Give the backbone structure.
Amino acid sequence: MKPSASEPLLADTLRPDFSRGVQDLLPAIAQDINTQQVLMMAWMNSEAFNETIATGFATYYSRSRGKLWRKGEESGHRQRVQAIRVDCDADTILLLVEQTGAACHEGYASCFFREYRQGRLEVIDTRIADPNAIYSSKSKH
Amino acid sequence: MKPSASEPLLADTLRPDFSRGVQDLLPAIAQDINTQQVLMMAWMNSEAFNETIATGFATYYSRSRGKLWRKGEESGHRQRVQAIRVDCDADTILLLVEQTGAACHEGYASCFFREYRQGRLEVIDTRIADPNAIYSSKSKH
């Protein structure tokens, strides 16, 4: 449904406000729609947001590579996007996704596999994939 | 348990790596440990992280105010931290919290109360608090 003429057309009621980001990048959180687990956080620019909507699969912007990052493009561990939510300031994005395989390049379901306990980070999860087997190349994601 | 002499003491096995942040700030995601709802995303520096651990309540760094932000200090809507997780790159923090009241200053349980649907953002949640009643002052948080 397109907004009608009587409804406000403020930019932040239509899209995230990428101008609020650092270098036009906003944090995008991926949450598993089935397990509710927070899987990862990455960055999106307007182009990544558009491609996510157009394809139905999570696309981020890789700051290290300086280009769009189609999550799972190499590993096959894609994220089918079921819902896109935006926070009150329209500067953080929450994706509810169906995750194929491990979200983390380390082979864990979630990138948040370490917990701070008594002054150090401890691994609290078990791998669901062999990180060496995920990628045919040396590419991280 | 303190790490033993035989264990590696890499910086990123002990704490988040704040040097990887923009101006030493890392994204910190708060998730409700009971409902599993993603509540909000804010920023932490090393000092905010330390205070969160010391007090057991989420403390962020407010970029707009340029100082520590003890979440719920004015509204009473505090976040008791039950677990702190860190991602594979040690540059994003996930807090599992017990949230008192609404996490969002708009009176919603979560700041992610709008969903992108057919080209616009629609409110998909209902308020659990009157935003005008949350704060006695004009302060946002």
Remarks:
- The two ends of chain A are 36 Å apart (CA to CA).
